[in-house]
């Protein structure tokens, strides 16, 4: 991998391809139904037991106002590392891990109004489609974190 390449994890959400820098990912888990917590933010699906601790599970579909998560047998939970905190995000499926040249990345245009632009690190032009690169560091605001952790 050369210095102008980034290793990304590509996953599906709301029928589209999204990606994140693999450095933000700790592990990919099979889907398990989270335990629902009362009075939690609407995008928090609940919690699961993970490595002898409690892992909050976040629905990106709810966070991005896409509606409910699509239920299918390919669903996964991606465990995201953020400082000392960890959380899981529900995705429709995980496609691949690949190296992408920074030449293929572009800044997100202003038209990306469906998702708050602060979450989008850029767009990646691949042969068969465009992948939205998310900045998972910015998915949770500090207010969100206070409610969750």
UniProtKB/TrEMBL annotation:
The lineage of its organism: Bacteria, Bacillati, Bacillota, Clostridia, Eubacteriales. Residues 5-145 form the CheW-like domain. It comes from Clostridium diolis. This is Chemotaxis protein CheW. Pfam families: CheW. One of its GO terms (cellular component) is cytosol. GO terms for biological process: chemotaxis; signal transduction.
């Amino acid at each position: 991998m050369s210095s102008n390449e980034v290793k990304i994890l590509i996953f599906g959400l709301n029928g589209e391809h999204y990606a994140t820098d693999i450095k933000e990912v700790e592990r990919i888990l099979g889907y398990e139904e989270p335990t629902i917590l009362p009075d939690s933010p609407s995008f928090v699906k609940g919690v699961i037991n993970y490595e002898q601790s409690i892992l909050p599970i976040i629905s990106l579909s709810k966070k991005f106002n896409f509606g409910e998560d699509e239920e299918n047998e390919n669903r996964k939970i991606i465990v995201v590392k953020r400082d000392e905190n960890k959380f899981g995000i529900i995705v429709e499926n995980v496609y691949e891990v690949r190296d992408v040249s920074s030449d293929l990345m572009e800044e997100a245009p202003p038209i990306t109004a469906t998702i708050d632009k602060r979450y989008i690190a850029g767009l990646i032009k691949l042969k068969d489609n465009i992948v939205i690169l998310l900045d998972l560091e910015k998915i949770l605001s500090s207010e969100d974190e206070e409610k969750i952790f």
